[in-house]
Amino acid sequence: MIGRRTVFVLLALAVGGALLLKAGLPIGISPSTQEVFDAIEALDSGSVVMISFDHEASSLPEVGPLGAAITDHCFRRGIPVVGLALFSEGTAAGYDLLGRRAAAAGRRYGDDWIYLGFRPQYTAAILGMGESIAGVFAADYEGNALETLPLGRRVATYDDIALVISVADGSMPTYWVEFAQARYGQEIVAALSAVMVTSFLPYYEAGQLAGIVAGFRGAAEYEQLLNAPGAGTRGMSAQSAAHGLIALLVVWGNVQAWRDRRRKRREV
Hints:
This protein is α/β, with parallel strands linked by helices. The chain has one domain (about 30-225): Rossmann fold. Helices cover about 55% and strands about 10% of the residues. The protein has helices at about 5-20, 30-40, 60-75, 90-105, 120-130, 135, 150-155, 170-185, 195-205, 215-225, 230-265; strands at about 50-55, 80-85, 115-120, 165-170, 190, 210-215. A six-stranded parallel β-sheet has the order 3-2-1-4-5-6, with helices on both faces. β4 (about 165-170), α8 and β5 form a beta-alpha-beta unit. The chain is elongated, with a radius of gyration of 22 Å.
């Protein structure tokens, strides 16, 4: 019999080993992930992408790799990024993520990316940016007036934003669709935690979302398209290792149960 402690140790070894080895498993690319990738590939270098970090801190291990992969793609293509958060918990996480990815790509703050920070009352914020981004965010997260930043001067309304990407663990992409897409015709992409995919498939199938990329699998697919394995690929490997171990333990437990029943019948 294998005790609980042994199972926990085996699980830790399986997950830790997969993370340390950094061995990515072959994975197919889903159509929706490919569409998001192609949408960014189709943008010219004069386009601007807005990334909104609409998630809680607890979801960062899952949605963080999605945001990182998409940001890397934008910076690789020379596309400036305007970041913001409509959930307070996503504010610092988004600023940190963009800062780290920008530093790795050699991008400069103010020219290649800016971070607007957080605004409460997300419905008013989304609608307000359709009329004036500076009217909603007079200053950026660092306290700079938008008109003092080259990229800040370039983005007045959604007319200057090619694509909005909501990195979310809840219902926030719904508000982007209802108020930015429906009213202003803004293209929206949802980068979601895996559990939220089914909630947004109707929007995607209706053409109200330009694409959906979700969970560790979505991040791993995107990293594969970029040919740059990262946290998503490692997360998928660790998850697969854990699932494989659990499957083996289930098989082993059933074999042991069958042997025990057989032994008891012989004793009778």
